[in-house]
From TrEMBL:
<keyword id="KW-0067">ATP-binding</keyword>
<dbReference type="InterPro" id="IPR051782">
    <property type="entry name" value="ABC_Transporter_VariousFunc"/>
</dbReference>
<dbReference type="InterPro" id="IPR003593">
    <property type="entry name" value="AAA+_ATPase"/>
</dbReference>
<dbReference type="GO" id="GO:0016887">
    <property type="term" value="F:ATP hydrolysis activity"/>
</dbReference>
<keyword id="KW-0547">Nucleotide-binding</keyword>
<protein>
    <submittedName>
        <fullName>ABC-2 type transport system ATP-binding protein</fullName>
    </submittedName>
</protein>
<dbReference type="InterPro" id="IPR017871">
    <property type="entry name" value="ABC_transporter-like_CS"/>
</dbReference>
<dbReference type="Pfam" id="PF00005">
    <property type="entry name" value="ABC_tran"/>
</dbReference>
<dbReference type="GO" id="GO:0005524">
    <property type="term" value="F:ATP binding"/>
</dbReference>
<dbReference type="InterPro" id="IPR003439">
    <property type="entry name" value="ABC_transporter-like_ATP-bd"/>
</dbReference>
<feature type="domain" description="ABC transporter">
    <location>
        <begin position="5"/>
        <end position="235"/>
    </location>
</feature>
<dbReference type="InterPro" id="IPR027417">
    <property type="entry name" value="P-loop_NTPase"/>
</dbReference>
<keyword id="KW-0813">Transport</keyword>
Length: 256
């Protein structure tokens, strides 16, 4: 089966700082990949390379069989990207913003309007479809971002902390949407700090630390190697398993 995502010996530096140190991975169609690591490990950098935002890297990156460096526009037509934070043009309404996004993907204007209204309704934003987004909460903005990243029905979806700011009901809905998208053959590349969600929805979990992959497998496979929760496994592999002592010291300092 031809990989949907393929990285070979990827290195990326910012100035003198080497952020990615030889990343190799291959993702098959229909997989939900949880890509996790501590802050600064290289998660967002990896995603930005795959979606064509960072063309200056060493190694080979391919999405849907296409070269990221030379075919980035063709790739962007077939992928969706939902970042943790993005500019939403606050003076626009959700409908105006989604019409703009749909036109970028050359969708039919009538189709955009119908689809945008239906998706806003499913996220309980239909009453705000024509309201300026200047007063929107972070959760409401995140819902609009999620819709905009999926509006064109992409084949591969990159999610970077997609649950940021969402209420409990919306989190449940997004998790189920992700499962059903993968069930229909879409490939999901999911980066998050919420271990419980990654553990429950991912077919495969990749842990990156200091620019290198330190674990790769299903949760059951990783747990078989080290019988802990994903949170404990993550702490061990990324060198952050001394948090209990740090917390105790924090409480001690507060009390003195």
């Amino acid at each position: 089966m031809t990989p949907v995502i393929q990285l070979q010996n990827i290195h990326k530096s910012y100035g003198a700082t080497l952020v990615l140190k030889g990343i190799d991975l291959s993702v098959s169609p229909g997989q939900i990949v949880g890509y996790i690591g501590p802050n600064g490990a290289g998660k967002s950098t990896t995603i930005k390379i795959l979606i064509g935002m960072l063309p200056d890297f060493d190694g080979e990156a391919r999405v849907l069989g296409m070269d990221v460096k030379t075919q980035s526009l063709d790739i962007k037509r077939r992928i969706g990207y939902v970042p943790e934070n993005a500019a939403l043009y606050d003076t626009l309404t959700p409908m105006e913003y989604l019409q703009f996004i749909g036109q970028l993907y050359e969708l039919d204007p009538t189709h955009i309007d119908r689809k945008a209204l239906d998706l806003l309704r499913l996220f309980q934003l239909n009453d705000y479809a024509n309201a300026r987004m200047t007063t929107f909460s972070k959760g409401m903005r995140q819902k609009v971002l999620l819709i905009s990243g999926l509006l064109h029905n992409p084949d591969v979806i990159f999610l970077d902390e997609p649950l940021s700011g969402l209420d409990a009901n919306a989190v449940v809905l997004v998790k189920e949407i992700i499962r059903q998208l993968a069930g229909s053959g879409k490939t999901i590349f999911y980066s998050s700090h919420i271990m419980e969600v990654v553990e429950k929805i991912s077919d495969r979990i990749i842990i990156i630390n200091q620019g290198q992959i330190v674990a790769d497998g299903t949760f059951a496979e990783l747990q078989h190697q080290r019988p802990e929760s994903l949170e404990q496994l993550f702490a061990q592999l990324t060198g952050s398993d001394g948090q209990t002592g740090v917390a105790e010291e924090f409480i001690h300092t507060l009390n003195n």
